[in-house]
Amino acid sequence: MKTVSLLLGIICLLAMLVAFIPLLGWLNWIVVPMAVVGLIISSVSNAESGKKICTIVVIVGVIRLAIGGGMF
User: Fold this and answer.
1) Each residue of 45-66: pLDDT tens digit?
2) Considering its fold, how many domains does the chain have in total?
3) Are 54 and 5 in contact (CB under 8 A)?
4) pTM of the full predicted structure?
5) Is position 28 within any domain?
């Protein structure tokens, strides 16, 4: 379970980096829920690295959605 949360966190982080490209902000609507699932999995399995990565992705993704008005 620890590797699953870490892998999910890394995938979400890479997808979030792609979502920083203008007009691809809608991708955060997919990335943030995936990171929340990764955060839940890492909390259950006590995976600290997965928890940190998923937390960063959720916070930055929500801020990006707020700045972009939910779309851009």
Assistant:
1) 888 988 999 999 999 999 998 9
2) 1
3) yes
4) 0.87
5) yes
